[in-house]
Amino acid sequence: KKIKKMSIKVGTKEVNEAWNSVKLDSGENNWILLGYDANNKKQLAVVGTGNGGYDEFVAELKEDEVFYGVFRVYAVDEDSRRVKFIQVTWVGPKVKVVKRGRVSTHKSAVLNFFTGCHHGIHATSLEDLDQKEIVNQLNKATGSHKPKGYEWTEKEE
After folding, report:
1. How far apart are CA 102 and CA 138, in angstroms?
2. For 42-67, what is each residue's pLDDT tens digit?
3. DSSP label of 46
């Protein structure tokens, strides 16, 4: 009996362009959200991008959907402002069991696609995306050089 491989296609042209618009300093966006393509469940498509930061990203999450995304946060000191990318695997609390099962087989391909992320979160509720907890996790990862604070949206020039 042949075992069916449950692979997922992540890096389509549309997805690559959207990810570049977030990860490149010259990009116009600070978050991206991918979901399953309505016409092909073995492929991810762009659900949204934007420049409204964390609040806009979180507002896009739906209770009955699975999304994979990244948003930017800025670690701020007196003399520097460093980008931190937060990768989120969102499995809404009302997602059906079959859809939940798909996440475990597809998550690693998505994580490999979103390179350069500083922290990853598997979120099943908005409480899992609490800003204080994200700051705690980022600070644990920074070692002795902790920033003075974090900015959650683009700084107005």
Report:
1. 28
2. 899 999 999 999 999 999 999 999 99
3. E
